[in-house]
User: Which sequence fits this backbone?
């Protein structure tokens, strides 16, 4: 028996998101980081500049380098298709948009001298949302408690004890958005619009 296999685009939001991140990272590499700073990095700038408003969302597409991109893309490609199948493309678009906006605004307000770029907040939103895949109304999944404890706890610890260029607050905010969506989206086996 000769079976034919074909490649399918199983998760259009996930694949589109990773493709945009890849293109933004490639453009950043080709321009020596100039395009990343101009279009794909959130930082304090005049609110009269239209690009400031764009960067509240677009910062999730740019990455500092290929290692940064590959780390985020691996998680997104692992978790995104499962979440997109369970919750639908509209919910995933909303999750990504809310995470981008929340992390962008908080970075803009609280860290005026820090540039923020990368999809780490979205990754953490995906991680926390994935712990709700077997959610039933009136229950708190043990997987959610453990994921929150391990991932968010690690970010709090590293934010206090480790000095690096990683935005631990972005990870915590992304995780919070994912947890909120997980609780709001629902009961096992049902797709809720959100």
Assistant:
């Amino acid at each position: 028996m000769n079976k034919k296999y074909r490649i399918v685009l199983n998760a259009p939001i996930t694949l589109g998101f990773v493709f945009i991140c890849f293109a933004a990272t490639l453009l950043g590499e080709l321009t020596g980081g100039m395009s990343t700073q101009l279009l794909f990095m959130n930082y304090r700038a005049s609110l009269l500049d239209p690009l400031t408003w764009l960067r509240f969302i677009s910062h999730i597409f740019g990455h500092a380098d290929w290692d940064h991109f590959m780390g985020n893309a691996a998680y997104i490609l692992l978790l995104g298709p499962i979440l997109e199948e369970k919750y639908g493309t509209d919910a995933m678009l909303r999750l990504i948009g809310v995470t981008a906006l929340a992390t962008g605004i908080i970075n803009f307000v609280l860290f005026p001298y820090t540039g923020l770029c990368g999809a780490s907040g979205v990754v953490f939103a995906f991680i926390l949302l994935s712990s709700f895949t077997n959610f039933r109304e009136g229950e708190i999944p043990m997987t959610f408690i453990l994921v929150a404890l391990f991932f968010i706890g690690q970010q709090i610890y590293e934010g206090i004890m480790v000095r690096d260029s990683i935005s631990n607050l972005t990870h915590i905010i992304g995780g919070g958005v994912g947890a909120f969506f997980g609780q709001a989206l629902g009961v096992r086996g049902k797709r809720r619009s959100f």
Observations:
- The two ends are 45 Å apart (CA to CA).
